[in-house]
Structures are given as structure tokens and as C-alpha cells.
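Bench notes, bay 3.
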Amino acid sequence: MGDSSLVSSAIVDFRRIESPSSINTYRQCPRKYYYQYIMKLPVSDSIHTIRGHVVHSVLETFFVAGPDGLSSSDYSLALSQRLLHSFNTEWRQAIPQLQQLQLGRDQVVHAYSESLGMLNNFLQWFLHRLHAEMHQGVSLTDAFSLLTPQVEQHYESPVYKVQGYIDAISHYKGSVAVWDYKTSRKDEITSEYYLQLALYALMYQEKHGKAPDKVGVYFLRHGLREIPVDDSLLQHAQIACEEIHTQTKSDAITSYPQRPGPLCKWSTGQCDFYRQCFGQKTVTDFS
């Protein structure tokens, strides 16, 4: 799968190693890309980024711990307790960051409850799959191992000059699936998510000589959504890599126009670089 002929001199003549986040940032707003990836201005934490880090860390720990110490008589309860303990540990470690946000107590409690609920959703999905394997006569240890993905795998493409961390790579009965975890409210594979998955598939193919069979997003509020990997998906990633390297050769701010819109400022916050772009003016002054 995939056509390496799409690689042009633009890929070779690169200024920096890109990522799914940086490419999506450029597509959202070139000026935001300039401030974040060329000027390297600091980006603020939010309740969403902190919560996302906590949840991802808990899921990584959940699988790294493996089936050790589990008993076939009470493994569901043991896994639930393990997950809760890990979550509380990670949440306590995040408290200094949360305090810097100066959030109200109700906001923090709500984020805690939502996050724990999402992790419990994931646990129930995993337990359902675990039960199904054991029902077929597979031991608890073997079933857990069979369903355990590789977690937090770093991939970097020397050809396309892009890198990223893949949340989970599942090898299940001869099929390979690449997954990303999301805490989004909607279970929709948006254009941004689609590109991220396409880039993961492209990097996986370059490293292993064969593309994964599927890529998908595990929406922690809703469940798993997968799409098959085909040539069109891989070519979508190749073209995105070529475009970003072509469009970001310059270090001049004038080469990165503002793209004012709803993501500049919203009811509960604003872009990290709103003041750099607009100062005391409003978005409508630039429309």
C-alpha cells in the first residue's frame, strides 16, 4: 500500500520534524503554527489537557501491570480497584497543575468524576472482551496478554519527517490495529483525527514494511471507531507531509497569515496566542 512516488524534494528539504498536532495546527491557523512551532512561545495547560494526560497515563499503567496477581475468581474487582488506585495516584500528582488554573471546586470535581467514568467505560469494554476469550477456554493470563496492546509507542519517519506517539497498537489474531484514545464529547472521526490516524498508518508502514489493517479512535465516552487502512488513507498522509514541509520553509511571520475564526476566542477561553494576534482588538476588527 502507498505510493512513495508522492515524495518530492519538499520532503527532503525540511526545516523541522512535524507531528500530527503541528500539521493540524498549521491547517487550523498558520499564524498559530508560527507562534507555537517557530517562535516556540509557551502553551498553557487547561483542564482538558491535564485530564487527558492523567487518563492516558492510567491506561498505559493498566496494561504495563499486566495480569500479574490476578485470580480467575475476582479479577473484575481487582482490575477495577487497580484502575481506581492508578487514577487517584495520577490525579493527586496533577493537583499542582490544576491549582494553577484557579478553577472552582465544582469544576475540578466534575472533571474528576467524568474522567473516572470514562476509565470505567474502558474497563467494561476490556472486561467484555476478556470474558469472551475466557469463555472460549483461554486462561485469564493468556486472554489478558492476547488483548494487551503495545502502549505509547514512538514512531518517526525518516522519509516523511514526521513523528508521533501511538497510544496503542493491537495485535489480535493476525490483525494489526492502531488506536488513539480521545476524551471528546462526540464519537466522530473528524478531519483532524482522520489525518492523525493516516499519519500513524504511514509511519507504521514505513517502519514495518506493511501497513496496519485498521486505525481507529477509542472514544472513552463512547467506544471504539475504526476505519480500514487503504491506499487513499496513506496517500492522504503523504500529501499532508509534503504540503507542511513546502509551506513552512520560511521563518518570516508574514508567510504565516492569521486565520480568524471561532477558535480564536470562545465562551470559556481563548487561543494561547490571542493577545499576540489581536491585542485589545476583537476578531471582527480583522475580518
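Next record in the batch:
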Amino acid sequence: MRSMGATQEEYYRGVRMVPYDLVKEIVLAIVGVGVLALVIAALLSSPDVPQVTIATWAQQNPIDLVTTATNELAGTTTSAAYGPPYNSVGAGQSWGPIAPQKWFGVRIPVDSASVFVIQPLQKASFSNTALGTALTAWQTATPDQQTKWLDAYSKALPAATVTDGAVTVATGDYGPLQVMMSNLVGVAQAGGLDGLLLINGRFYQTDYTQPLLFIGDGTYLSGLASDAKLTGSQWGMMNETGSYPGQTWLWLYTMWYQVPPFTSPTGFLGFNASNADLGIILLMTLLTAALALVPFIPILRDIPRWIPIHRVIWRGYYAKRKVPAGG
């Protein structure tokens, strides 16, 4: 303890002291860490892949967009028959009496044909008389007539060609569909459809549910996912784009998508590929609860005493706790 009345020089007399520049050390530390971070980021960071938009979809694969829009009108896409929370057409995933989608019901109403095709075209028809006439013809036609047009157009699409971004099909009785789809492609390629599907009355647009559902109904997005090794069969849930590792802690979830019964159409005990999401959530909930309750589960809680692996890992700690013989 410093003596009362002693000066600083007297107090530190005999003690070896060296100059110390705290500011210099902080600057060097910040610069060093910054350079290291930049080098590691350049060597190990995942690719900066451009965002996927409906505009890029329409520009790179307009036939797929038109095919998807046609299927939306026919009600045969994934979103059109998904069930809750988007619509009541499908029952959703369930396991016996456990059906969360049905319990919570339709919370985000999405009429695929109207939202993805009819409504955007209605907004685009204000200054387009030909499009307005085509929409009126479509909406006033009987369901049987609409089905005939859709069937004929769908059969012609596999042989469609693209010229200057426009989709061309063989001559046939498609009613107003050619005019409707031509305008939809034009709006999409210009970036208008991306904005129209985000309009929800809010200043900040953060709800991408509708654009994602529409793109997901086609083959374009799934093709990009497959190329980037992000599909479920490629352990995509825990990967970044390409072969870069991502959230490795998700391996326990994504592992179950690779094994039966979640890969089988028939399955086991009611679990199969069609309700894999729900089945895996239930399984992980059960495993998490079991992990939390390990101290209370007989036999399971006694395994560390029977197989003391922890004593090998912490052998240094247990060696110090040994009582000497005769002590």
C-alpha cells in the first residue's frame, strides 16, 4: 500500500518501468483485426448472388413464367392448392388428429389466379384497350370455355418459342389468353409485376409472400436452387449458395429430410414425404424435450455413471480430486 505523503517518484523507486502508448496499441489492434477480417472475407466468404426477381425470371425464362401463369388460371399450381394459411382448397399437412395448418386456418388469403394474373393485368389495362377487352372476354366466359382455352394453350406451350423476349405459340383457339400472357410478360420484364405483388398499403414493403409464391410455382426458382445445391435433397437448409457451409447447427433438422420415412411416398406410422415438414417438427420437438428432461429420465440419466466418458475428458480435474492413500 502506498505510504502516506510519498511522492509518485518515491513510490515507484526501484521498480523497472517502460513507456506504454495505449492509443498506439488500440490503433494497431483495430488495423490488424480489420486487415485480417478483409483477408478472411476475400478467401472464405460465400458468393454475392444477385437477388431473384420476377423481372429476371421473365427475362431469362419467359416461357416458364407464361406456363406458370396459365397454371395459376387453371388452379393447378402448388400455391393454388396449398391450403392454409393461403386458401382452403387443400387440407395442409397433418398427422392423425394433429393438423396445425387446419387449426389456424387461412390467415394470409391468396387467390393465386386473381392475385398473380388477373389483378396485375387489370392495373395494366387502364391505358391498354386491347388488354381491357381481352380481360373482359376472359371474365365473362363460362368456366367450360375458360377450361377449353387453357387446355389448348397449355398443350401449345411446350413448343413455344421466344423472339425478342416475347413468347410465341402455334396458331390455335386460345381466346384472350395470348393477349393476356403477352402483356403479363411485358409487365414482368419491365419490373412492374414485382412492385404490383408487393402493394399492401404500407410505406415500407417487406412482405414478399406473394412474389415468392408466384416464382415458387414455376420451375425457374427450383432450378436455381438445384444449381446452387440448396434443395432439400442436397442438405440445402444448412448451406449457403454453392458448396459454402452455412448454418451448420441446422444439420439435425435437414438430416431427417434425407432418410425414411420422410423420403418415402408410403412412409411409416403415418409419416411420409407429403407431411415431412410437420413430422420433422414433431420429431425435433420430442427430441428437444427429451434432452431437457434427461436429468429426470431413469436409466438415461444414469448412463454417465455407467459409462464415465466425462472422466476421460476431464481426467486432469478428477486426478486433482483423488485422495492420497492413507490420507
